[in-house]
Amino acid sequence: MNQLSSPALANQYPIGMVFDVTFEEFSARLTTLPHSRMQFHIDNGVYAKTEVVKMAADCIRTGVFLVSWTESNGATVVHVEDFVENKIYSHATLPDGTFLRMHGAMNIVDQGN
């Protein structure tokens, strides 16, 4: 993305973007990478870790994406990332079968190239 564009106007998932998400359970920093990869970093708490995952992203409508991945421990994550409203909705199934339904705010740190 360049300075004239915004994730809220995107029809393709933005690459090189860094954004923070805040859920009740934890906060994370997500970085979108080339080749359908994403890095997530959870700083503290029971879910603390950093990992690069292979993900899939589908455009629901301009600025809104359905994003999913499987983590190395077997956890599955599905997000609706709404860059128009700066909101994120996340559903995750943990390796022990626990199902998390979370939502929170997104804050774009860097829009990337």
Describe this structure in words.
Helix content is 0%, strand content 57%. It contains no helices and 8 strands. The chain has an 8-stranded antiparallel beta barrel with strand order 1-2-3-4-5-6-7-8. A hairpin with a 6-residue loop joins strand 3 (37-42) and strand 4 (49-61). The protein is globular.
- Uncertain ranges: none
**In angstroms, what separates the terminal alpha carbons?**
4 Å
Strand content: over 45%
Number of helices in the DSSP assignment:
0
Tally the structural domains: 1
Primary descriptors:
Calycin, mainly beta, 113 residues, MoaF-like, Lipocalin, MoaF-like domain-containing protein
Describe, in short, the structure shown.
The chain has 113 residues and is mostly beta strands. The chain is built from no helices and eight strands.
Write the layout of secondary structure elements.
Layout: E1 18-22, E2 27-33, E3 37-42, E4 49-61, E5 64-70, E6 76-82, E7 87-93, E8 99-110
Antiparallel strand pairs: 1-2, 1-8, 2-3, 3-4, 4-5, 5-6, 6-7, 7-8
